[in-house]
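worker-3 :: picked Ribonuclease E inhibitor RraB
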Amino acid sequence: MTDEYTRRLASQFAVDRTQIDNRRILGDDLSRLREVEHFASFPTDADAQAAVAELERLSFRCSTMSTNSSHVMCAVRLDAVDEESARYFVRAVTAVVDAHSGDYDGWGAPVVTARRPLVHIPDSPEEIHWS
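worker-3 :: tokens ->
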């Protein structure tokens, strides 16, 4: 990979850290799986379709939209969004996008809050208080 690719990847990781920090503030359970969408644009439809073929082999569902001068791709897969997972999926997607002359535009996903039980379920007999 080129120095330019490394610079763009480092820049994306900085954006990811900010997004992950904001998700924590919102109460996101970063370890829970959710659909993560990745966006990229390509100079030609052929480039976009080649990227789609590679990403589909990595278990992404992909769609493209083309106009006369724009070829945009969205790739979706179930992933967690903690920092380690984000670095892994960003590296995977950007490598494919870069290999096909594309520009990676980042990722997005819904905030998923932690599940909390409505009632306390005792873990041991000592926690049971009979009245």
